[in-house]
Every structure is written in structure tokens, then in C-alpha cells.
Amino acid sequence: MTPGRSNEVALLGAVMRDGSIYEQAREIVQVESFGWHAYGWAWEACESLHEQGIRIDTITVADELERMGKLAEFCMDGDKTFSGRAALSKIRESGEPRSFLSYAENVQDMAAKRKLDTFLTKCVYWAKNGRRAKDIMQDVTKELSEITLYSAQDEYTVPLSTAVSEAYDWTDAASQGKIVGVNTGFKDLDNILGSLYSGNVYLVAGRPGRGKTAFLLSIARHVGKMLKKRVGLFSLEMGRAQVAQRLIAQEGEVDLNRILRGALTPAEWPCYTHAVEQVASWPIIVNDLSSININQIRQTARKIKASGGLDLIAVDYIQLAESGEKNRERRE
């Protein structure tokens, strides 16, 4: 038997011995997770039976494979002695239903490794045949983000007692001044929120044209200018020059329309040039890739943090990053 296939056999055997475990196992393992095509057929048969509400066992899986036209070809990896129903009966002898999660995780793990092996081999080929490193890295980021690994040790599902303990630790650290949020510069809002705390997501909602972008830039300006903290600003609608023009208009208290038209008065030019110097000195990093997605935002934020720290991420606006559709009706 090919190394790593024993878990595939054990998982199928466990499911055919206790069909009730399939409901949870299917959340971890898909048809394409199996390295041996025949085992993938059996898993597909289990999915079909599950959707029909039919009990999963050796007989029903065999019947479903027969309906699929796959039963005659079904055999075990590395052992052609058994085929069809006999092979399924042999598989049923393997696997302990109580250990199905371990089998499922191992099957998924091997599937992920096969994907990595295939893709990284392709990366090596690209690297040796003139493709630019930047393009290779973008593809690597995209491919890796699509590989999802499930673990029975779910770090996001915990007893309330664990959450309570973490809440106490937070309050204790805050009382010692170890946790300091980022204030927005809007006193009334800061009184309500306390501050913008690390790990939290804050959404600004409103109808188009009501000042959401101006509000967001005001916060970024306050954090960068007054607090001297590093801001990652992702602008999916405006280019970086437009973002800079708005910040300059805020800082220099110069009408934005006159800046855009180059129609500044003699008295406004000194204010404008001084604002340009001030804005250029703020620790704000701007990304204006309009087609950026959530995974790319995450990767870019990590790069910004690695290059000098990151205290606040501002996205204008997140709805575009989620869907990639800019021509739909805007409901922000």
C-alpha cells in the first residue's frame, strides 16, 4: 500500500462501520482529498447516500458505487486481489470509528502535502525559467490561502471559562498600563468605544456621500500625526494621490476642489506647501490596489508590520475587498 493511504482505508472502514460519523468527517475530507481514486469514489458514494438520507454501510456504499458504474473497477491501492464488494468488505475491517477524526485529519494533511508538492515543484520550474519573483510570490500567497486545514483542537471553540480567564487577564494588564488602545481623535467616540483596541474590527457604515472616507482619513491623520503610530491605509476606491490630496486639504485647511484644479490663491500656497511637508512625514503606508482581496490585505499588513510595526489598519472600503464586484449597487 502506498505510504499515507492507510488512513484513507481506516477512515472509509470506520464510516462503513458507523455511518453516523460521516456527517462530521465530511466537513474535513472531500472527494479530492483521497490519493487513491477508488477511495474517492467510495467517499463520493457516501456523500450521495448522505444527501438521500440513506444509512451508510458496506452494502449501501456498494450499491451506490454500482449505480455510479464504478463498482466493477473498485479495488484497493496496491492490492488487486480484492475488488468490488469484496474490497469494500476488506476495507470495513480497518478503522476504529472512535478514531475517525484522527484518520480524517491525516487524510486531509496528506492531501495538503500533495498540493504543496505539486505547486512548489511548479514554483521551482518558474524560478528557473525566468518568471519574476514578485509574480511567483503572489501565486504562492494565493495558493497557500486556499489550503484549509481542520483540526479537532479548535482554537476558536472554547468553554466560557476560558474566555472569562482571558477577559480577566486583559483587565489586569490594562490596569497596569500594559494595554493601550489607539484613540480616534474624536472625543465623544473615544468616550463610547474607550479606544480602538488590537484584535478588534470596527465598521463605519452609512449611505454613499455621507463622509465615511473623510471620517476614516481623519482617524488615520490623527493616529499618524498626533500619536506617531504606524497606519496601514488600504484605498480600494481612490488612488494614492487622491488620498494624499485629501489629507493635505485636511492638514492645510485648504479647499480640496481648489487643490484638484490647481486654483490656489497666493495666500493658500504657503498653507498648501507646509501641509505637503507635514503629511509626507506621517508614518502612514498607503496601498491603492483596487482589486485587492482579504488575503492580500492580510499579507500586505504582515509585510508592513515586519518592516517597522503596524498599529492600525484602515480599509476604504471593505465591501469591495470581500466581493471584487464594483459595479453592483452600493450599500455600505
How is the topology of this model organized?
Blueprint: H1 6-17, H2 22-25, H3 37-52, H4 58-68, E1 75-76, E2 79-83, H5 84-92, H6 100-128, H7 133-145, H8 160-175, H9 187-193, H10 212-226, E3 231-235, H11 240-252, H12 256-261, H13 268-280, E4 284-287, H14 294-306, E5 312-316, H15 318-323
Parallel strand pairs: 3-4, 3-5
Antiparallel strand pairs: 1-2
If you had to describe this structure to a student in words, what would you say it looks like?
The protein is built from 15 helices and 5 strands. By secondary structure, it is mostly helical. The protein folds into 2 domains: 1-157, DNAb Helicase, Chain A (Orthogonal Bundle), CATH 1.10.860.10; 203-323, 3-Layer(aba) Sandwich (Rossmann fold). The protein has a 3-stranded parallel beta sheet, with helices on both faces. Residues 323-332 have low confidence and may be disordered.
Supply the key terms:
332 residues; mainly alpha; DNAb Helicase, Chain A; Rossmann fold; 2 domains; three-stranded parallel sheet; two-stranded antiparallel ribbon
Can you summarize this structure?
The chain has 2 domains: 1-157, DNAb Helicase, Chain A (Orthogonal Bundle), CATH 1.10.860.10; 203-323, Rossmann fold, CATH 3.40.50. It contains 15 helices and 5 strands.
